[in-house]
């Protein structure tokens, strides 16, 4: 089963060791808005999602195909 986009967003942030507040500040939004994205309560606008991709330095295709790393995988 494919991972939902908001779970990918959360896992990508966690894998990078970043806090929600740091990402939210970098995107110019509130931490509560970013939290709502990660929980899937609301979706970012296209421009905001593009900013997320830029922040995490991934393309849309990379994000779509991204899976969290598991311990022991290389």
Walkthrough of the structure:
The chain is an all-alpha fold and 74 residues long. It has one domain (5-65): lambda repressor-like DNA-binding domains (434 Repressor (Amino-terminal Domain), Orthogonal Bundle), CATH 1.10.260.40. It is built from five helices and no strands. Helix 2 crosses helix 3. The radius of gyration is 12 Å and the shape is globular. The mean pLDDT is 90.
Query: Globular, elongated, flat, extended or rod-shaped: what is the shape?
Result: globular
Strand content: under 5%
Per DSSP, the total helix count is 5
- What is the CATH architecture descriptor? Orthogonal Bundle
Structural class: mainly alpha
Can you give the helix content as a percent range?
55-70%
Give average pLDDT, whole number: 90
Largest sheet: none
Uncertain spans, ≥5 residues at pLDDT below 50?
A: none
Question: How many angstroms separate the termini?
Answer: 22 Å
The CATH superfamily turns out to be lambda repressor-like DNA-binding domains
- By DSSP, the count of extended strands is 0
Q: How large is the radius of gyration? A: 12 Å
- CATH structural class: Mainly Alpha
Number of domains: 1
């Amino acid at each position: 089963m494919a991972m939902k986009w908001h779970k990918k967003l959360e896992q990508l942030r966690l894998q990078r060791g970043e806090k929600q507040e740091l990402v939210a500040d970098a995107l110019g939004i509130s931490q509560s808005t970013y939290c709502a994205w990660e929980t899937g309560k609301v979706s970012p606008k296209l421009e905001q999602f593009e900013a997320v991709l830029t922040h995490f330095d991934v393309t849309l295709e990379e994000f779509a195909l991204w899976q969290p790393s598991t311990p022991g995988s290389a």
